[in-house]
TrEMBL record, chains A, B:
Family stated for the protein in its record: Belongs to the pseudomonas-type ThrB family.
Pathway the protein acts in: Amino-acid biosynthesis; L-threonine biosynthesis; L-threonine from L-aspartate: step 4/5
Species this chain originates from: Stakelama marina
Catalytic activity: L-homoserine + ATP = O-phospho-L-homoserine + ADP + H(+)
PANTHER family per the UniProt record, alphabetical: AMINOGLYCOSIDE PHOSPHOTRANSFERASE DOMAIN-CONTAINING PROTEIN, AMINOGLYCOSIDE PHOSPHOTRANSFERASE DOMAIN-CONTAINING PROTEIN-RELATED
Gene it is expressed from: thrB
Protein name: Homoserine kinase
């Protein structure tokens, strides 16, 4: 959420000459996305996002992400593909970092989406999944179910520094979720976004204008994607207040495009519990490894513990 | 250089209805300016900068800054005036902060301006000063000459933590500059920008398209403004390499519009030494009061000590 690599106007002006995009008119470092450096770039022709990939995105994964965005954009999905230079290359280097020039999309990320907006976002995810049935590449979910126990063990008893008893409580939940987790063949797998929080959906009014920040995209259960989304959208930030109307609108919007199979529908609560464990653990790890006085805002891991408790008390996601 | 106050899309959408500027299409937090929160805002009609004023800008000073920008904009100067709402107000409140919606200006801040670009920037300052001869408001220079000895004393012997011997060396220079400093009546005073670093000049090619970040603007010697500019533009960042060609181009560009009076010309070196002391002291204070591991980049105070030594060895700014 900051600009880590400073790009000079002169270096950017040179960089843009590789592309057929006009000349530099303005650029501003923007506070957005996962830990990359992003600039909003305006040329005499159009606007773009320039992304320099910092340590959290592996350069080796970029071809996968770019192929994914191209595939979706070619099928009319509202995703921001990278711009190819005159030689057809999308992945470049600038200031010692892998860099892409990406189409700018209009729209704003909502802080308090309504049920109608959640319905539209669910539908947008459904259309994205439908457009991916013929996408052939795969990428491991490096934050997927196999990684939760090892990350839990790495955090260890320090979890109790976040909240007294969290180590035991989360350990118990983790055991339950792992034993309930579907087998690979039990339901459809697909490339998924895996992080479609309201931050990553651009909207104008009730219309979705952009799905962004695909840098956690990976291969996993298709229904896990909507479970992640449900856990992110249907609660307030602190995870205290569950809004069933929002949650139902998301699921309804989604299943209009991709009807749930029986196994998916039956597993939704466990997938949502898994999503809570995934975000709780990554936030806990960051929390335990970020100094309290650092300028980076640490996200509260317990906001996902509260969600987990809510799901634990539910029979199913649909009321 | 970060976004301190988070504004939601919903709050911004509401805020914009006060103005006749169209509807919100996009907004991004940008890393820019002194310690304010800035957003680049796009509506169905135009683009704007939304600034929320954080602690470094006193709310009581905002009417002065806004009157200054209006005055300059009315006289065709490339400055970004605040947009008035339907009731004529320019200064608002948003998310508990004083806030202004400001016209967006094209152009980029250069990292390595050429002599021709420096000439254009000097001319732009000259035109700005010429446009201010009939501006009646005044504001104390809170970083002006009367404040250097107190700030030096507040830093005290801790200056030696920045560089061994800096306390004595800077004390000696400060005494010299204070005794050489012109009397108030000795040369023209004006409202000045007081911080016209390359960061604060937007350019397209060799043309100046914007003068921005007027939040240090104050009443002081007119020639002190060009001295500040000279110390910022004519050296590399570290203050090691002086580029006389750039310095002369700046002064030449300026005096085409506002010819130096004899007293100004004679005092330029001392004014530039004063500028070095001003930036050295504010950087030293920040350095001594910012933890080394904070995410904020501390600017090297010694970059201004090196400039000060260069000016100390000069007979005059013009070769």
């Amino acid at each position: 959420m900051a600009v880590y690599t400073q790009v000079s106007a002169e270096a950017l002006g040179d960089f843009l000459t590789r592309f057929d995009v006009g000349e530099l008119v303005s650029f501003k470092g923007i506070a957005e996305g996962v830990e990359n450096s992003n600039y909003l770039v305006e040329t005499t022709r159009d606007r773009f996002i320039l992304t320099l990939y910092e340590k959290r995105v592996a350069a080796a994964d970029l071809p996968f992400f770019m192929a994914l965005l191209d595939h979706l954009a070619e099928r009319g999905q509202p995703v921001p593909p990278a711009i190819a230079d005159r030689e057809g290359r999308e992945i470049h280097e600038l200031c010692g970092r892998p860099a892409c020039l990406i189409r700018f999309l209009p729209g704003v990320s909502l802080s308090e989406p309504t049920a109608e907006q959640a319905r539209a976002a669910g539908t947008a995810m459904g259309k994205m999944h439908a457009a991916l049935t013929d996408f052939d590449l795969a990428r491991e979910n490096t934050m997927g179910v196999e990684h939760w126990q090892p990350l839990f063990d790495k955090c260890g008893k320090s979890l109790n520094e976040i909240s007294q008893g969290l180590y035991d409580d989360l350990g118990f939940q983790l055991d339950e979720v792992l034993s309930a987790w579907p087998a690979e063949t039990q339901m459809p797998r697909s490339v998924i976004h895996a992080d479609l929080f309201p931050d990553n959906v651009l909207m104008l009014g009730d219309d979705v204008t952009g799905l962004i920040d695909f840098y956690f995209a990976c291969t996993d259960f298709r229904a896990y994607d909507i479970a992640v989304m449900h856990s992110a959208w249907s609660f307030d930030n602190e995870g205290r207040r569950f809004d069933r109307e929002i949650g139902n609108a998301l699921l309804d919007g989604y299943q209009k495009i991709v009807p749930f199979e029986a196994a998916e529908r039956a597993a939704l609560v466990d997938l949502a519990r898994g999503a809570c464990i995934r975000f709780l653990l990554s936030r806990a790890w960051d929390w335990l490894n970020t100094p309290a006085d650092a300028m980076v805002t640490r996200k509260d891991p317990m906001a996902y513990w509260r969600r987990l408790e809510t799901y634990d008390a539910m029979d199913g996601l649909f009321a």
